């Protein structure tokens, strides 16, 4: 009986933590975040302004600078067999001058060891920009 009493509470808590992403506005450019090698890719700023929801960028067409947070795990020592990984936090800056209204772009962050890379792809999968600056903390 007690199990069933907790179901509405669990549903309510889940609803509070998962706000849906709004539908794309055809008058805006849209950038989705993606990574295969990291734990987290989250939008932080657009043209120096803090964003309320870091899961996506949606903004007017034109020239813009994106600041994105990227977290990933790195082994502490290359030669240590039992080394525990630690989380590395990076801030990636990318600038693109030709965002178009109604277009979907994909921001992809990757790492290879301690090197961090970012790519901006258009809707056809073409690379249109790469990272301008990467600042990482340990």
Oligomer: single chain
Gyration radius from CA atoms, angstroms: 18 Å
Strand content: over 45%
Bin the helical content: 10-25%
List low-pLDDT spans: 1-16
| Straight-line distance between termini | 48 Å
Count of folded domains: 1
**What are the secondary-structure elements, in order, as H or E?**
HEEEEEEEEEE
Principal-axis shape equals elongated
Q: Report the sheet with the most strands, covering strand number, pairing sense and barrel closure.
A: 5 strands, mixed
What does this structure look like?
This protein has 138 residues and is mainly beta. The chain has one domain. Helices cover 12% and strands 54% of the residues. The protein contains one helix and ten strands; from the N terminus they run αββββββββββ. The chain is elongated and about 50 Å long.
How are the elements arranged and paired?
Layout: H1 2-17, E1 29-35, E2 40-46, E3 49-50, E4 56-59, E5 62-75, E6 85-99, E7 104-112, E8 115-121, E9 127-130, E10 133-137
Parallel strand pairs: 1-7
Antiparallel strand pairs: 1-4, 2-3, 2-5, 5-6, 6-10, 7-8, 8-9
Provide a short characterization of the protein structure:
By secondary structure, the chain is mainly beta. The chain has one helix at residues 2-17; strands at residues 29-35, 40-46, 49-50, 56-59, 62-75, 85-99, 104-112, 115-121, 127-130, 133-137. 12% of the residues lie in helices and 54% in strands.
């Amino acid at each position: 009986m007690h199990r069933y009493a907790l179901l509405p509470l669990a549903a309510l808590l889940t609803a509070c933590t998962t706000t849906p992403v709004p539908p794309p506005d055809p008058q805006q450019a849209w950038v989705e975040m993606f990574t295969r090698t990291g734990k987290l890719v989250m939008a932080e700023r657009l043209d120096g302004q803090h964003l309320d929801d870091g899961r996506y960028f949606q903004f007017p067409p034109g020239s813009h600078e994106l600041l994105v947070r990227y977290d990933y795990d790195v082994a502490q020592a290359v030669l240590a067999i039992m080394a525990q990984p630690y989380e590395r936090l990076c801030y990636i800056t990318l600038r693109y001058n030709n965002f178009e209204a109604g277009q979907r772009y994909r921001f992809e962050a990757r790492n290879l060891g301690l090197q961090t890379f970012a790519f901006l792809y258009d809707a056809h999968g073409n690379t249109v920009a790469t990272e301008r600056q990467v600042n990482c903390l340990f």
